[in-house]
Amino acid sequence: MTALLAGATGLIGHEIAASWTGPGKLHLLVRRAVPVTGPAPRLQRVHVVDYAALPALPAAEEAYCCLGTTIKVAGSQAAFRAVDFEAVLAFARAAQRAGVRRFAVVSALGASAKSATFYNRVKGEMEEALAGLGFDSLVVARPSLLDGDRAGLGQPQRLGERLALALTAPLAPLIPKAWRPIRAATVARAMRRALAEARPGVRIVESAELQDLGT
Fold first, then answer.
1. d(CA 146, CA 190)
2. Which domain, by its residues, includes 153?
3. What are the tens digits of pLDDT across the range 43-69?
4. For the whole model, what pTM was predicted?
5. What whole-number distance in Å separates Cα of residue 192 and Cα of residue 213?
6. Can you tell me the distance from the alpha carbon of 103 to that of 138, in angstroms, rounded to the nearest whole number?
7. CATH number at residue 9
8. Which of 68, 111, 152, 179 is the most buried (most CB within 10 A)?
């Protein structure tokens, strides 16, 4: 079972790569070279790519897309859309050409193409575009606030995110699962489990279900 992974330097993508033990090889698509880690590094191969001009990808059966940024980091709404919509769709189409029939993607809580919020609207449009590609199985993960070590991955620390995590930590058991902060490792495990179940069609996995699947 060979798999493709886009976004291996992010919180969730890093967790998928770091825990990969097979059974097949994992191809990591990144925009800058990264060291191979995890319990079975021999099963991983890194490919430095430009998502605006993707080459032919290695043949694979499944793919995980963990690409994402913020408007603040990207610098503009157009730059944000270039990552969270255009790069995601480019990867999905390239994965299809490589033989992928099962695809999992990280979206966001509240994603909707009809949302008045730009961020959630782009995420919703991305989901609809992926659904139109015709994968045998499409898993859409919609996590709530992500909890993970961004600094350890060399990512910009998000002040609002850090404050929200600090404020909600003591109250976590009282917060409904649908809105409770969720560990990136939990989302990674949930995505792998959901894709392994290989249900036909589109499966939207909200944050509460991600909590259950990833434990």
1. 14
2. 3-213
3. 999 999 999 999 999 999 999 999 999
4. 0.89
5. 9
6. 5
7. 3.40.50.720
8. 68
